[in-house]
């Protein structure tokens, strides 16, 4: 009887030790980073998001909402001669309705955003500029400057809803004290809407920390939490093997595996292949 009680106490101590270690492996760095964000004084040159910009909606005809259609749009620069710009506040969102009907060839348009930025006359001429966006939901976006394509999300457009935009602008077209216009094009189905988050434009040295912070909080930290949860599930399964009568340990292990599989959709694109998408959807 005493041996059984001693064995139970030993198992509990080991399990708590693993839980404590797992918490500090992910929780410790996360807490320190959040304290840094809250307490560290903001720098004077921290860029501010565009509160107001200009928008124009281009009508598209006969272009499908898929990789082929977006590749075709990638070769079409913004038709500025036909543009009718209207002021708009960012973030700009048309929410997905509760019920939407998508026809075989749904009506598609492209929202254009014109961002005007003037590099400071006293800034370094060799310091590159960058455009940073928090989130874009819709079709494959494109970034243009002086009639040239600078960036496109064609290769990973299905996952852009969970990734930030960060693109360096060509130095050959930038002169200190001279304003530049950067154009962001976002195609979308009129029946389903779209979303464009906050946009920043400025020197790379001031834009990069904003981008790295969002990547850490939006991508790196959730990936680490997902792996830690799977590790805790493996440890729970190990405890259940030793104590088969305690079914909650098995339930914890199976739940962690299910959570791991379901959350893979936030980091990997399973919809590019129809067969894989069906198998993954059935598994979820």
Give an overview in words:
The chain is α+β, with helices and mostly antiparallel strands and 284 residues long. It has five helices and twelve strands. Strands 2-1-4-10-7-8 form a six-stranded antiparallel β-sheet, with no helix packed on it. Strands 3-11-6 form a three-stranded antiparallel β-sheet, with no helix packed on it. Helix 1 (2-39) runs antiparallel to helix 3 (204-242) and helix 3 (204-242) runs antiparallel to helix 4 (247-263). It starts with a helix and ends with a helix.
Helix residue percentage:
25-40%
Radius of gyration in whole Å, from Cα? Answer: 25 Å
What about the largest sheet?
6 strands, antiparallel
Distance between the termini: 44 Å
Task: Provide a concise account of the structure shown.
By secondary structure, this protein is α+β, with helices and mostly antiparallel strands.
Keywords for this structure?
284 residues; alpha+beta
